[in-house]
Amino acid sequence: MASSTPYTLKWGILATGGIAKTFAKDLLTDPAIRDVSDVRHEIVAVASSTSVDSAANFIKAIDGPSSAKTYGSYAELVADPNVDIVYVATPHSHHFQNAMLCLEAGKNVLCEKALTVTAAQARKLVATAKAKNLFLMEAVWTRFFPLSIKIRELITSGAIGQVYRTSADLSFGQSKPDGSLGFDDSNRMVNLDLAGGALLDLGIYALTWVFQTLYHTQPEEEKEAPKVVSAINKYRTGADEQTSIICQFPKHGLMGIATTGMRVATDPDGKGSAGPAIRIQGADGEIQVMPQAYRPPQYRIVKKDSAGTVEVVDCPIPTDPKRGGWGHGMFWEADECARCLRDGKLESATIPWSESIVIMETMDQVLKQGDVQYPEVITTDVFDPKSPLNTGGK
Ligand SMILES: NC(=O)C1=CN([C@@H]2O[C@H](COP(=O)(O)OP(=O)(O)OC[C@H]3O[C@@H](n4cnc5c(N)ncnc54)[C@H](OP(=O)(O)O)[C@@H]3O)[C@@H](O)[C@H]2O)C=CC1
Ligand SMILES: O=C1OC[C@@H](O)[C@H](O)[C@H]1O
Questions:
Q1: Which residues form the domain of 280?
Q2: Taking all residues of the chain, what is their mean pLDDT, rounded to a whole number?
């Protein structure tokens, strides 16, 4: 018989930047707004590599619990016995070292996307989680949206016939008249030291759609990794600014096209007027997903029939009136973490370890084909608790 007491997951937040605030505010919403009653979340600790004051300011900024511990180092956070799981919210350059710091300290981990900078790092994280019997998940939040779940069901139930092709784009229009992009060269979007570039930051969402529609839906015993052909235009910093990827699944006869960039936008007017960000095309019709690819508000089913049937489905993100109308959509991945830990699972079936690794292997190939080179300190797969990526240089 199901228990009426929700399972409570106690979170530690590692880093205090933009997405850490967004995610933490989602944790603080009432699960009832999304019809969830079996799990709930508490923020019990926050760490900043900058200072303990930054951690305290973070709690104030999110209107968080005054009971939460605040730390001025990541090492202190991972040593806190009250923390069940750590949310790693540093730039991608830091994910491998920070997630290893957590796992080595015996903590379960939800790590922001892209999981790592290289596939070898992802394999090392997975091997460590497995060896230590700990939960590890890449925070590809879009996969946990009811919209994504429904679309995967539509594909596997044959609603648009045999699916043959997915094209997906996530691009921002940041081009300036002088030829530069609208980011300082030190910004994590274009800075090689922070694993900058369109692919690891934005392209991962275009790939998420290719993989969740063409790979995740393949039967387990027939899983086929893609053959990858790609092209990259580089920015002046050496990071990729426009990247196009073809993922071919020849045994299944499938083709995925993922595009990303920072020159022209998927959604130039921010209202969806330019059309879908994603097209999933089957023999009997197609599913179109409206932008942005990371937080889609709507999908449409266009049937290949003489009546020209188009079904439009809006998927609003629930908001919490008691939290100032807040709700971003990251709570669904948090709920998944809680359920996995409650049920003793080390990985999520929605983004299994093997799939995170295949996606990182795909991105490895793209970066190699485009000759993007990141510094050794962020590509090494040797864990170093004293790495500046773990200590903030202190
Ligand atoms: N799922 C989503 O929708 C989104 C995911 N992301 C992902 O989250 C991660 C962080 O992005 P975002 O929050 O936008 O980044 P921010 O720059 O806003 O924050 C990153 C935080 O990481 C910590 N940090 C440690 N070392 C460094 C360093 N050398 N340079 C910069 N920051 C450092 C800092 O926190 P402190 O000083 O407290 O240690 C900083 O505040 C990225 O991997 C990104 O891909 C980003 C946006 C949206
Ligand atoms: O994950 C993300 O989604 C939203 C984007 O604005 C951000 O750059 C990226 O990291």
A1: 146-314
A2: 98
Angle formed at CA 47 by CA 43 and CA 53, multiple of 5 degrees? 105
| Structural domain total, the chain | 2
**pLDDT mean over 37-59:** 98
> Could you report the predicted ipTM of this complex, rounded to two decimals?
0.99
CATH of the domain at 101: 3.40.50.720
- Position in ligand 2 atom list of the atom nearest CA 205: 1
For 18-69, the three-class secondary structure string (H helix, E strand, C coil) is HHHHHHHHHHCCCHHHHCCCCEEEEEEEEECCCCHHHHHHHHHHCCCCCCCE
Q: Which residue, chain included where needed, has tokens 């937080």? A: 295
Instruction: Note the pTM of the prediction, 2 decimals.
Output: 0.98
What is the tens place of the pLDDT at every residue in 354-387? Answer: 999 999 999 999 999 999 999 999 999 999 999 9
On whether the CB atoms of residues 122 and 357 are closer than 8 A, the answer is: yes
Query: Is the Cα torsion angle 190, 195, 198, 201 positive or negative in sign?
Result: negative
Nearest-CA residue for ligand 1 atom 37 is: 50
Distance from the alpha carbon of residue 201 to the mean position of ligand 2, in angstroms: 6
Distance CA 99, CA 95 (A): 6
With the most atoms of ligand 1 within 8 angstroms of its CB, the residue from 19, 70, 170, 172 to mutate is 19
Residue 210 tokens read as: 């290719």
Minimal-distance CA residue to ligand 1 atom 31? 91
> What is d(CA 333, CA 140) in angstroms, rounded to the nearest whole number?
8
Structure tokens at 368: 């190699």
The distance between the two most distant Cα atoms of the chain, rounded to a whole number of Å, is 67
Q: Is the CB of 296 under 6 A from ligand 1?
A: no
- The mean per-residue pLDDT over the stretch 33-37 comes to 98
Same domain, residue pair 44 and 31: yes
Phi-psi region of 200 (alpha: psi -120 to 50; beta: other; left: phi over 0): alpha
Q: Closest ligand to 172 CA? A: 2
Same domain, residue pair 239 and 281: yes
**Look-up of token digits 């089913």:** 301
Tell me which ligand sits closest to the C-alpha of residue 206.
2
Is 86 found in the same domain as 40? yes
For residues 64 and 172, membership in a common domain is answered with no
| Six token digits for residue 86 | 């750590």
Judge whether 323 lies within some domain. no
